[in-house]
User: Fold this.
Amino acid sequence: MDVTSVPLGTPTVAIGSVPGIGYGDGVQTKHALHDVARRLGWSTPGGGDFGAVIPAGARVLVKPNWVIHANRGPWGLEPLVTHPSLVKAVVEEALKSKAAQVIAGDAPIQGCDFDQLMQGGDYLGWAETLTDSEPRFGGLRDFRRTKSMAHDWHRNTARDQRALEHFVLFDLGGESLLEPITVDGAFRVTMYDPELMRRTHAPGRHQFLVAREILEADVVINLPKLKTHK
Assistant:
């Protein structure tokens, strides 16, 4: 599909493919990204694959799907999370634009060991090298306030891992789509304290914390992972 003549803002779809199975050394991922960006009209000479869609001075958030650090089966990380080669390629291309800042961040499930996830994706050395060479790179962010790890059948929960100042609180109140099915104390989310859920989701009260990095970003590049889940 040739969409190079479609005006920006028009809903379009382009599909990039790589030969064979797997991601290889990441070169094929970059070629696929370049091809998709060209066909969508995103790229510009000297501005990388997002030169036409990232305004000068913009704050950019690259949002991968970082779920958990390990597969409970024998299949590794590829079925679970956005592949690191795509995350790295998108960050590097975004930095070729005139963006003021580019960061990558997500809120994995509470049981994710973020450091191990970063090691498994070979992010740490890459991020350190990129930070040294490009001051506009804002690093890799873990947006969670609560982390919960299981050890020997016991669960250790650490709350307030990020200060509230890094979030914005929204209370949708009676306008929440949860309101018609709300029964006091009935909501549960895996690894969340039921008492906290009771305080934040009750008749007439539906509170959500959203990371400031998301709300303050001028451009969000979402990189979901097609999967059945973790």
